[in-house]
Each structure stands twice: as C-alpha cells, then as structure tokens.
Amino acid sequence: MSEWRARRFWKEARVVAEADGFGIALDDRPVRTPGKLPLRVPTRALARALAAEWDAQEGRIDPGAMPLTRAANSAIEKVAPQQGAVAAMLAAYGDTDLTCYRADGPEGLVRRQSEAWDPLLDWAASRYGARLIPVQGVMHQPQNATALQRLEAPVLGMTAFQLAGLHDLVSLSSSLIIGLAAVEGLFPADDLWARSRIDEDWQIHQWGEDAEAARAAATEKRAFLDGLEFFRLSSQKSVTA
Length: 241
Known about the structure:
Mean pLDDT: 94
Shape: globular
Radius of gyration: 20 Å
Structural class: mainly alpha
Order of helices and strands: EEEHHHEHEHHHHHH
Distance between the termini: 43 Å
Number of helices: 10
Helix content: 55-70%
C-alpha cells in the first residue's frame, strides 16, 4: 500500500504580515508546523520563499521538495525551545573542527588539505582572533579555550532561525569554521563544500566513485546549499523583497 499524503487544496499561497513576523496562508487557511504551532518567520524574504515552495506543489504534497519550510518548522519546534543548547552544540564543533585534523601522508593529500584548510584557519584568526592549531592524525587534541570562546560568541548571538541554517552548514561539513565562513560569504558555497570534501575526493581519486556514495554526497551538498539559503533569508531585514 502506498503512503498516504495530503493533496493540494488551495489556489494560492500568500504571505501574511503578523505582529510577531510573517506567516503563510493557503487561500485563507494559515499554515502551521507539524506540531500545530503557528508558522511565523522573521523576514518577508523568507516568507516569500516558503510561499513559493507551497505554490510549487502539484497534486500530492511532497515535504521533500520544501527544504526551507522544513527548516522553518525545525527552527520553531526544535531550535527555539532549546536555543542556548543548540548554539553550544554547534560551537563545540570548533574543538574537533575538520580543518584541524590533517593526514601525515601521502604528500598529495597533505598538500590538498593545507591548500584548502589553511586559508580558513587564517581567516578565523583574523576575523575572530581565534587561532586553531592543526594536528596530524584523528585523535582529539583540545584547542585553546580562549580561541573556542571567541568562535562561540557569534554563534551565541544568532537567532533560532539562523541557528537552524547554521546547523546544516556545520554538521554536514563537520566544521564550525566552514559554517561561519559560509554565512559570512568568505568563499562561494560550492567552493566551501568542496573544501569539506578533500578527504572523500582523495579517496575517489584513488579508488573510483561508488554510485550510492555519490548520490548521498549530492544529497548532502544540496542540504548544505539549502542551509545557507535559509540562513541568508532568515537574516534579511523584513522590509527587503
């Protein structure tokens, strides 16, 4: 038996300005989260993007085709009630940041890691005064506590919606530095994703690409790009288009 899914019943999805943000209405019916909370987002730009996702639905509703709506639901239902804990969890990635764990060989991989990751560590030192130290191997080596506190500060200052976007950037790349570099526009998103995939791409170069792994990587890249888009739309001022 096929899984039941709701079907489109509305003619138009539109943005509704509310006292506490912007909602989405399907004709005259306000959209709620899966947990029945009001779907309120902080910017008109994000609300318009969500309305566009709903308007793009034809026939049966496909939640998988609405990544921004899913992220908004997560921000409201999962992040907001425990915002401090989520921020601390993401900031903790700095102590095990991907960019700090380097191979001791072969020389080609060592060079690629250095070329991709050293500029990110230099940027973090310049931007936040947080110098993380790379080490060889995969065993955890604690980073300087002051540097970690300085990387934590911008994360603690983010809204629940911004944290929802940052979550995918950090968790998918295994790097707080890459996540912060993405939201600050240090490099294009495609470039930063490639920098997070140095080890995997090296293995593909050596042994060839597995089709299933390639599909999974493509899905993760799409989620990374969607996370950045969600962060950006959540950060725009309400008066913007």
